[in-house]
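Worked example 2:
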Amino acid sequence: MVLLLAGVACLIMWSAWSSPGPSNGAAPETEPRSPASTSAGTGRHEPAAAPAPARPVALTIPAIAVRSTLEGLAMNGDGTVEVPQHPGNAGWYRLGTRPGAQGSAVILGHVDSVRGPAVFYRLATLHRGNLVNVRLADGSSVRFRVRSVRLYPNARFPAEKVYAARGGRFLNLVTCGGEYDASRGGYQANVVVNARWVSTSAS
């Protein structure tokens, strides 16, 4: 199980350091949303915030032939981020931003497993301009365009940038990369693909 554990360890290491919390666009599944809110004591109605996009359920990346359902990922008891249980599936960090909302949504995936290549095996081969599509539970789709593909050593993983970037609607795809060194816990870096929102199409 060396390769599978290495991929998991890679993701857990940086997630433990990042300790990400909920960001703009995130909401509990059961949180009610009203069309407008009233300022206390004034009687004035403030403009309603844009409703959060629906829960993401599937991911496609045509340039590298990725088609995956999305597991919902939360946090482990030790404060690290969960990783997908199945190497063929990607997972969305559901305590953070939803794809298509303001902020940074994050989707994680393994690079390999004991059976061979996993869902994000070819993630590092993406190029600027490639398209990424996320299908939502309400049938709508959110499209992103790749802006950058970068490799970060584990010790210098930019957690704030990946989980909490502001000033736009972003999607960050993350997997293990770099040198594999079993004596040092597995992969020594992370591949991060940053993409910017292009459009949201109705169901």
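The CA atoms of residues 75 and 81 lie 4 Å apart. Confidence is low (pLDDT under 50) at residues 1-9, 12-43.
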